Amino acid sequence: EAQVTQNPRYLITVTGKKLTVTCSQNMNHEYMSWYRQDPGLGLRQIYYSMNVEVTDKGDVPEGYKVSRKEKRNFPLILESPSPNQTSLYFCASSFTSTGGFYEQYFGPGTRLTVT
Amino acid sequence: QKEVEQDPGPLSVPEGAIVSLNCTYSNSAFQYFMWYRQYSRKGPELLMYTYSSGNKEDGRFTAQVDKSSKYISLFIRDSQPSDSATYLCAMSAATGRRALTFGSGTRLQVQP
Fold first, then answer.
1. pLDDT digits (tens, 9 = 90+) for B12-48
2. Partner-chain contact A94 B98, CB within 8 Å
3. If you ran DSSP here, which 8-state letter would residue B51 be given?
4. pLDDT of residue B77
5. Cis preceding linkage at B10, omega within 30
6. Please, what is the average pLDDT of chain B?
7. Distance of CA B58 to the CA centre of its chain
8. Rg (CA), chain A
9. Distance (Å) from the alpha carbon of A22 to chain B's nearest alpha carbon
10. For all residues of chain A together, what is the average pLDDT?
11. How much is the pLDDT for A99?
12. Residues in chain B within 8 Å Cβ distance of A45
């Protein structure tokens, strides 16, 4: 089954304790991205990757890191989480077309609580 | 001011009703206009998209884009309880980093 998977689905942690949220896709997509969803704000892009070893900042990158060493994986790293990073996180992936529309497929989400 | 504004609802309608969902936006660079559906505890799923202005129909769903007014709509005919979900409008430019700019979502409840 074609899908984007995220782990863990739920995480409660304390301020300052480093954590990693994994994202993996089995559709051979070049493009991957992380979003966070907060009430009243919709989804906002954190980081994105156009292909392996190519990453760049989105709209809200502060406090986050990413890496793209393999095509299928795009982990999100919080080196020192703070309570304002409590949110619902989504990973998404798509093909990189030369033109035209591309559908982004979303994972099931990771609900993170930082106390 | 947010780039995309969407009424959060909630919107409650009886089964069979016609539902109208709307978004306004401010960025003239947006060329692709999408509607995503998000069920509780799930990720967003693309419902339909439109390129530039115009209408697009898919079964019971019709998407409309009016770029001159910076206004997009999604109509759901003969609404069903299974349509109960949060509907997110999303937009993007045709080039660049492919980021989707989302509205905050409208929660829809279709009563049987």
1. 999 999 999 999 999 999 999 999 999 998 999 999 9
2. yes
3. E
4. 97
5. yes
6. 93
7. 13
8. 14
9. 15
10. 94
11. 64
12. 97, 99-100
Residue B78 region by backbone torsions, left for phi larger than 0, else alpha for psi between -120 and 50, else beta: left
Neighbours of A12 (CB within 10 A): 11
Alpha-carbon Rg for chain B in angstroms: 13
- What is the Cα–Cα distance from A38 to A88, expressed in whole angstroms? 7
Residues of chain A neighbouring B41 (CB-CB closer than 8 A): 108-109
* A and B: number of Cβ contacts within 8 A: 58
Of A98-107, B33-42, B67-76, B103-112, give the lowest mean pLDDT range.
Answer: A98-107
pLDDT at B7: 85
Residue B80: how many other CB atoms lie within 10 Å = 12
Sheet of B19-25, strands arranged across: B4-6, B19-25, B71-76, B61-66, B54-58
Question: By CA distance, what is B95's nearest residue in A?
Answer: A99
Partner-chain contact A42 B105, CB within 8 Å: yes
Cα separation of B46 and B34, whole Å?
7
Model confidence pLDDT, tens digit, residues A35-91:
999 988 889 999 999 899 999 999 999 999 999 999 999 999 999 999 999 999 999
Residue B82 structure tokens: 């299974």
Distance (Å) from the alpha carbon of A55 to chain B's nearest alpha carbon: 10
Q: Is B102 on the interface with A (CB under 8 A)?
A: yes
